[in-house]
Prior knowledge:
Blueprint: E1 12-15, E2 29-35, E3 43-48, E4 51-59, H1 60-64, E5 69-72
Antiparallel strand pairs: 1-2, 1-5, 2-3, 3-4
Amino acid sequence: MRREHNIQIGEQFRSVRRSAFGHAGGAVFEVGDILIEGCVVPHARLFNVSNPSDRRLISVDALKDTNLYSSVEFQSIAPAEPVTDP
């Protein structure tokens, strides 16, 4: 039986309080991969968006726990209005 994990590659998270994986308002981690095969509980492989060599492996259930992690809204760095030449 396959369980839905509802976490998508590209989603971003940060800790909501101090823990071994960060602190409130700390680093933002992005889901790079979801590991299902060979796992009793699916796990997400995350990387720090400001330091990609900083990687974590966290269970999907933990990422969905709002007492531990919060989803970070995607913020585009593109200009709000198209740039036109004068």
